[in-house]
Amino acid sequence: MHLSRQPEPLYRELAAVLRDELQRMSPGDYLPGEVQLAARFAVNRHTLRRAVDELVLEGRLLRQQGKGTRVLAKPLIYPMQAGSAYSASLSALGHTVEAQLLESRLRPASCEEREYLQLASGAQLLELCTLRLIEGQPVSLIRHAFSSSYAELLADYQGGSLRQYLSQRGLPLTRTFSLIGARLPNREEAARLLMPKHAPLLSVQTLSRDLAGRPVELSLSTSRADRFQYQLAL
Fold it and tell me: Which residues form the HTH gntR-type domain (predicted)?
């Protein structure tokens, strides 16, 4: 198969052809190898890589070192509501969700954190960092900040749904507000989420309260914008 020689860059024309072909492939399928594809389209491997790069940035493909280039499903839609929980909401939609605990540490609270969580000057926070994987692929990093007074309650948390863990211990939480933004990832975020450093992240800062209305958790989630969408119920 040969591509036309139009004014548009050849790699973009090739990306359009591949984009159309992906519609007939299933999530999890692998593209043929570079040599095979380059020969099929009569292009060099550099042009082929640039075309595939376009589709990786769009969230349609995922490069896996030593395995190949994999077709991804359409971006996930997370229905954000006051009582919704990340793992439970996506599991209910039929997705396999995993939450790994990466870090647990005590640190001083910032002025903003003290204000949100109604803490005294000089207060300490317990910060948990979790990595969320959907269908085995990393999608979100979440930093959860709690008053250090909850350290004993959270001492046994080793992963899984944090909302469920707290609810089972008599502390169900409800989302009070969420601030949604976008930015570029830092080096750690890009590495953890297997994404290019020049691709955008969705960031969501959320304050959650207990049934009595007391602020308990201030979280900051960063998610791949090409893999994740938030749906707000108005």
Answer: 8-74
